Amino acid sequence: MKRTAWLPILLLSTSTTFAAEPSFLQRDKIDLRAVLPEPPQAGSAALKSDLAALHRIEAHRSEADAERARYDENNPTVFLFATVLGPNFTEAQLPLTAAFFKRVRDDESAFGDGAKDLFKRPRPFEVDTTLHPVCRTKDIGTSYPSGYMLRGVLYARLLSEALPEKKAAIVKRGDDFANNRLVCGSHYPSDMVGSRALALRMAELLLASPEFRAAFEPVRAEMRHALGLA
Questions:
Q1: Is 178:199 a contact under the CB 8 Å cutoff?
Q2: Distance in angstroms (rounded) separating the CA atoms of residues 153 and 114
Q3: Exposure on the CB side of residue 15, measured as CA atoms within 13 A
Q4: What distance in Å separates the CA atoms of residue 130 and residue 142, rounded to the nearest whole number?
Q5: For 191-219, what is each residue's pLDDT tens digit?
Q6: Contact status, residue 118 vs residue 110, Cβ threshold 8 Å
């Protein structure tokens, strides 16, 4: 298989530039190359399949779909789950939750941006100029893995741990949030594979950390109280 021009950069990269300092996990806790499969290469059947899927999504995308995707792009905090957890799930009513998930966001950004720096995958609309994205296309970095997809899966996994009664709705909302990046035209379907793998590995390590558990317990209690759960 013919290699792309950017692949040697990926293989020769020996350092990772992190945009944020993680709050809970040390950087050496996750070997990004071990966790993340390599994204499809230029000219591969897998990349053609990715692009074909985006064209199908675009062909059936309504303006309402685009509006939902843009809404999620502009509201990427844990409170996106208010749509399934109810009107009490707000930053004003959950200050501990808000502060805690800002710390989780630091971990997500550190490892997600570090992975982007390793793979440097072009956005789909840069590869196929016949695509018509409906969300931001400037200054949004590289495609793999998706920070939004990573966040949706990671937040859903952590919220499900605290609110198991709501797990099905939480997971669906997280998946919808992630899939809206495909509706936007900002990511490939295969970006979700890497994002999910990294999110689940991060959640596993976080939930195994005594420091994280200690910080999470009052947050769990706050959420359950606000939502009227025993």
A1: no
A2: 18
A3: 2
A4: 19
A5: 999 999 999 999 999 999 999 999 999 99
A6: no
Cα angle value 57/59/62 (rounded, 5°): 85
Contact 122, 131 (CB under 8 A): no
Q: How far apart are CA 146 and CA 99, in angstroms?
A: 23
What is the domain partition of the chain in residue ranges? 42-137+144-226
Q: Which residues in the chain belong to E strands, given as ranges?
A: none
Q: Which residue has the tokens 């809404």?
A: 71
42-137+144-226: CATH topology: Vanadium-containing Chloroperoxidase; domain 1 (1.20.144)
Residues with Cβ within 8 Å of 203's Cβ and at least 6 positions away in sequence, in order, are 154, 157, 158
- 90-118 pLDDT, tens per residue? 999 999 999 999 999 999 999 999 999 99
